[in-house]
Amino acid sequence: MRWRCPICAGDLALLQDGARCQLGHQFDRARQGYINLLPVNHKGSREPGDGAEMIKARQAFLAAGHYQPLANRLVAIVCDGVRDRVRDSSRIAGPVNVLDCGCGEGYYTSALAAGLRELHTPSRVTGLDISRMALRLASRQHAGIEFAVASNFHLPVQDDQIDVMIRIFAPGDFGEVRRVLSPQGIIIVVSPGPRHLYELKQGIYAEPRNHVAPTMPEGFDCLLEDTLQFPVVLQAREEIDALLTMTPFVWTARRETVSELDHLTQLTTQADFIIRCYQPIAV
C-alpha cells in the first residue's frame, strides 16, 4: 500500500522511527508503535477523537465479547469478498490491502487480520483513527498491524490502493473512499439498526426513537445489505456503566435521567446493526 503525505500529497515512506516524504515532511512514530499523520489543520481540537473514559469503557465492553457476533459477521463478509477477488489473480497484484477507518482500539481490526491469516492469502491490514489515545492501546495490544492517527476525511493513502475498507459507526467522506479504493475495491459500512440498544434508551429517554437508516451514497452500488440482531446480556453494574459510557446516550441525555439507571445490576438490550457493502460505480 502506498501512503500519502497529508501535507503535500506525495508518496510517504514508512520508516522504523516514523515516516518521511520526498519533500522532507516528517512524522514521528510513537513509542507504542503508531504513526501520527494528522496535521494540526486537520485536528479541529487539541485532542480530537474519543477520550480516555469512553475508550476504557469500550475496551472493557468489547473484551467481554458482547459484540463478538458482529466481529464474526464482518470477518465472514470480508473473507468471502477476498476469496471472490483472488480467484482471478489479475484483479489484485500483491497483498490484499484492508483499511479499518475509525478503528478505535483495534478490536475489529485484529479480528479481520486473524480471519485473513486463516485464508492463507497475502494481506495487509491497517487501522486509522483520529484518537491518539485509542491507538496507544491498539498498538500495544495488536502487534503486527500498522496503526496511524489520521482523519477519515483526509485519508493518508494514495489513489487506488485499498481493496477492502471497513467503517464501523464512524463518519467519513465517500469522495475520499472513491479515491483510495482499487478498481474492484469495496467498502463495508456498519451503522446502527432501528432498534439498536432500544431497551437501554427506554431507561434514558421519555420517548426513545428508532435509529434512522443511513442514506445510500451517490456514485456507489450497494452489493450487499445485511442486518444483524442479537441480545446483549449485561449481568453486572460495571457492564451497564461501560455500555452507557461508550455510547453517545450518556452525553445527550439529562444527567438526572441517566442517574435513574444507577440501581440496575442487570440489563438485556438488543444489538441491531445494518451492514452494507458498496462499490464505486465505474465512470
UniProtKB/TrEMBL annotation:
Binding annotation for S-adenosyl-L-methionine: 67, 105-106, 196
Methyltransferase domain mapped to chain residues: 97-210
Alphabetical list of InterPro entries matching this protein: 23S_rRNA_MeTrnsfrase_RlmA, Methyltranfer_dom, RlmA_N, rRNA_m1G-MeTrfase_A_prd, SAM-dependent_MTases_sf
Superkingdom in the source lineage: Bacteria
All copies of domain 23S rRNA (guanine(745)-N(1))-methyltransferase N-terminal, residue ranges: 4-46
GO molecular function: metal ion binding; methyltransferase activity
Binding sites annotated in the UniProt record for Zn(2+): 5, 8, 21, 25
GO biological process: methylation
Keyword set includes S-adenosyl-L-methionine: yes
Keywords recorded for this protein, A-Z: Metal-binding, Methyltransferase, S-adenosyl-L-methionine, Transferase, Zinc
Database matches in Pfam families: Methyltransf_31, Zn_ribbon_RlmA
Protein name: Methyltransferase domain-containing protein
